[in-house]
Each structure stands twice: as structure tokens, then as C-alpha cells.
Amino acid sequence: MVRVRALFAFVIVLTGWSIHLLNTNQPIENNAINFFDLSSEVFTIIVIFMMLFVNLRLASTTSESSMFFIGLLSLLCGHTHDLLDEVINIQPLFISLILENAANNVGVLVIMFALFKWSGRYKQQIKLLQEQKLALTSVSNTDPMTHLYNRRFLNDEFKTRLQSLNLEQSPHTLAMIDLDRFKHFNDTYGHLEGDKLIQHAARTILNEIREVDYAFRFGGEEFLVVIKGNITTARRVAQRIHKVYYDSLFAVDGLKIEKSLSIGLKQLDDSFAFEQALNQADLALYQAKKQGRNCIIESSTCTNNEPTSFIQVTLNKDLATS
């Protein structure tokens, strides 16, 4: 509203001043008028009024918007005198120098400075939006309790990444991990302590995998780790996770809890879809549970998509068995 009143007042003053100049100065003869310049100035003034209208419609209170407004008013003053200069000889000459040339130059400089400031703020806003986008993407792709990746990220994006890999040149192995006797723990100590145990296991997994590996909370107390490397590399990573989790301290009301986990491994193969390999890793995990838990089982050869053999990984000698 302030700018509308300012523009209205400015136009009234400029109109009155222009009428005064027309009445007090010598007109130029018709044959000396450059009508092309005259029409060009009329068009320029119309454009300036349109830009002023846009500036008012935006109703922005930023310093850049105010500078644009001032710069446009200065241009309006300069080009109005340019228009008058096409039909009359403005006297004295300093009026043309100040209200025509200087006004136009000042208007251009002010608008350029406003654009410079706006571009800097625009870059900052773009950077902020990118950071917010990354933050939102991270929130949508991670499990809020464990801060591991979730099933949504696995299904929507990660599988597509894997499909673009040449698994012969860049082998990957799946590790399905499940906390042993978790239901009994939950029933005994309550769901709050159960959540703490899941978080404890997630931290262990994150600490023991490498930066090139991915850890997902697959569901409940079950985790999926995609290990970059063949079955030999995955075996070492799985052994490390298994041992560190078993040896780590976890207590409830000062009572140390004995805990373990079971792991099923399956190396990804170009001949199998991801879901098939995931199913075989899950079957290897089931076999680990079936063999008494607290162990690592590899899914070996298969026929008709069903595993025909399992291999139990030898654990460290100082790791007790359940």
C-alpha cells in the first residue's frame, strides 16, 4: 500500500512537471521529430509501468524489491524526459542532464545492484532447499528408531542401483540377521527394553560394516546388510558383527543379558533376481535358527531356486555357542 501511494504521488508530480515543461519550452518542428525514437520511448515507458505493476503485485518487503521499485521510478523519470526531449527543447540543459541521463543511469545501477543482491539470496535459498531436500529424503529413507535404511528405500531406490551393477566385476552379498530369542526377551523384560536391544544391535551393525555396505531394518528384530564383496568378504563382516554383538555389554536393571544373533548369507548372482537371492539368504537364516541359533549359515548351490546345501561358518574359538 505504501508503494502504491508513492507511485501515485510520483506519477502526479511527474505529470504536472511534464505539463509545465511542455508549456514553457520551445516545441520541435514536426519535420524534425524522430517518430521512431518517439514510439520507442512510449513503448519503454509502457514496459516500465508493467514492471512497476508486477512489483506492486508481488507485495514483497525485501530490500531487493524496494530497490527494484526505486530503480524503476528513476527509469520512469528518465524515459519520460527522453520522451519530452523528442517533442520540445528542454531548457535549461541541466534539467535534461539530471532528470534524463542521470536518472536513467541511476535507475540502471540501482536495478543491477538489486539483481546482484537477489542472486546471492537466491543461491542461499537454493542451497537451503537442497539441504532440506536431503534431510527429508534421509528421514523418509531411514527407520526412525534404529537410523538404518528402511524397506521403502530398499524397494524404491536401492534395488534399482543394484540392477545397474555388473555383479561379476562388483560382487555383493546379502546378510540376513535376526536377534535370537527376541520374543522371549520381550515377554520377559517388556517392549521398551526390546526396543533398546534392537537399537543396540543396529548400532553394532553400523559400527562393524564398512562405508561401502548398506544396513536396513528389514522388520521387527530382523536386519538386512548388503555387503560389497564376495562371500569371503561377507563372511568376515558377518563374523565381526556376530562376535562384537555377542561380546557387547547389554544390561537390564543392572543385570547383564546373554544375547546372540543368527545370520544367513547369500552372494548375489546375475542368474538370480534380487528377491530370489533374498529368499535364499532368509532360508539360510532359517537354517541357522534350526541348527540352534547363534551361528552363521551360507546358502550354497541351488536347483530350481531352492537351496540344496548350507555351509556353517566357523566362528572364532573364543566365541561360546548357545
From TrEMBL:
Catalytic activity reported:
2 GTP = 3',3'-c-di-GMP + 2 diphosphate
Record-listed E.C. numbers: 2.7.7.65
Give TM segment ranges.
42-59, 66-84, 90-116
SMART domains, A to Z: GGDEF
Q: Which UniProt keywords apply?
A: Membrane, Nucleotidyltransferase, Transferase, Transmembrane, Transmembrane helix
Q: Where in the numbering of this chain does the GGDEF domain appear? A: 170-301
Q: Source organism's superkingdom?
A: Bacteria
Q: Name one GO molecular function term.
A: diguanylate cyclase activity
Please indicate if the UniProt record lists Transmembrane helix as a keyword: yes
**Stored CDD domains:** GGDEF
Which Pfam family is one of those matched by this entry?
GGDEF
- NCBIfam families per UniProt: GGDEF
Report what the protein is called.
diguanylate cyclase
Q: What lineage is this protein's organism placed in?
A: Bacteria, Pseudomonadati, Pseudomonadota, Gammaproteobacteria, Alteromonadales
